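## retry 2 of 3
previous attempt timed out at serialization; input unchanged, resubmitting
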Amino acid sequence: QVQLVESGGGLVQPGGSLKLSCAASGFAFSSYSMSWVRQAPGKGLELVATISSSGDRTTVYADSVKGRFTISRDNAKNTLYLQMNSLNAEDSAVYYCRKASGERGQGTQVTVSS
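## retry succeeded, writing output
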């Protein structure tokens, strides 16, 4: 079955950086577009970034993270990444990786606070 396991979250100061990872198994990872989504307390799910399955690895970002976050993937390792720089309090949320067909992992908490 599909398994998506996020890691790399934690507490970081404003302006800091974190790199999230998502280990995927149970499906042909390289064949699917993958996304990072996040949910802050009391808010709905927000699509953060998407990367295509194709060779050119097309990426799309939410306006709120454009220029600060970078999504990438290593198909040989079945792993999705999210490099997050210049973090601010509004980035605090549970971050999930999501397969194009909708499945997502258990999430990893990111807290930006001084």
